[in-house]
Amino acid sequence: MQQPRENNISWDECFMRMAHVISERSKDPSTQAGAVVVDAQNVVVGLGYNGFPRGIESAELPWERTGAFLDTKYAYVCHAEENAVYNANKSTHGCKTYCTLFPCNECAKTLIQNGIVEVVYESDKYKEVDAFIASRRMLELAGVKLRQYISDFAKKE
After folding, report:
1. What are phi and psi of 21, to 5 degrees?
2. What does pTM read for this prediction?
3. What is the three-class DSSP state of 131?
4. 150: CB partners within 8 A, 6+ apart
5. What percent of the chain is predicted at pLDDT more than 90?
6. 142 partner at 20 to 30 Å CA-CA among 8, 29, 56, 125?
7. Residues with a known catalytic role
8. What is the sign of the dihedral through the CA atoms of 107, 121, 125 and 27?
9. How far, in Å, CA of 91 to CA of 113, rounded?
10. Under a CB-based contact definition with an 8 Å cutoff, are residues 111 and 82 in contact?
11. pLDDT the model gives residue 119
12. Residue 111 belongs to what H/E stretch?
């Protein structure tokens, strides 16, 4: 009798690769982020990437990283984690989020308020920035499990 294949990828690897793939939908010229929300049965509930709100064309607002607030992308972009929750096809209560970047403070609030119980992130390159320090503080206080996972997909890039 034939045996099942043994070298399949883990759920962590699968969902982090999916986060990377969905990040490629982003039109942001400097940062492409992706997120995947999955339930306790490892079924995908929502996908998201960073971009402007629905109905706003990518050329209608600035993509600048520096300058006056209203002249930068930061006033307008919805982050991947937010979009994954907004795009969810059912409640995200009790779900886990896989994201290519550690979530900022605004995304942390969205995740907490929507019942996310675990955040699996890849990059934590902004961990010394106040918004990410605040995020970590809120997530930990809310009892959200935080875990870094470096995807094999990212290692190949």
Report:
1. -65, -45
2. 0.93
3. helix
4. 122
5. 91
6. 125
7. 81
8. negative
9. 11
10. no
11. 98
12. helix 105-113
The confidence score (pLDDT) of residue 157 equals 60
Q: Locate tokens 């940062």: which residue? A: 31
Q: How many residues does the chain have?
A: 157
> What is the rounded CA–CA span in Å between residue 57 and residue 132?
28
Structure tokens at 73: 């992308």
Nearest to 103 by CA among 41, 50, 39: 50
Asked whether the beta carbons of 111 and 80 are under 8 A apart, the reply is no
Residue 19 · residue 79 · CB < 8 Å: no
118: exposed, middle or buried (Cβ count in 10 Å: 0-12, 13-18, 19+): middle
Q: Which residues of the chain have pLDDT under 70?
A: 153-157
- What digits encode the pLDDT tens for the residues 12-28? 999 999 999 999 999 99
Strands 34-38 and 145-148: unpaired
157-to-20, 23, 82, 150 alpha-carbon distances in Å: 11, 14, 25, 12
Q: What do you get for the CA distance between the two ends of the chain, in Å?
A: 38
Edge-to-edge, what's the strand order for the sheet holding 96-101? Answer: 44-49, 34-38, 96-101, 118-123, 145-148
Element (H, E) at 134: helix 130-141
CB contact at 8 A, 28 and 55: no
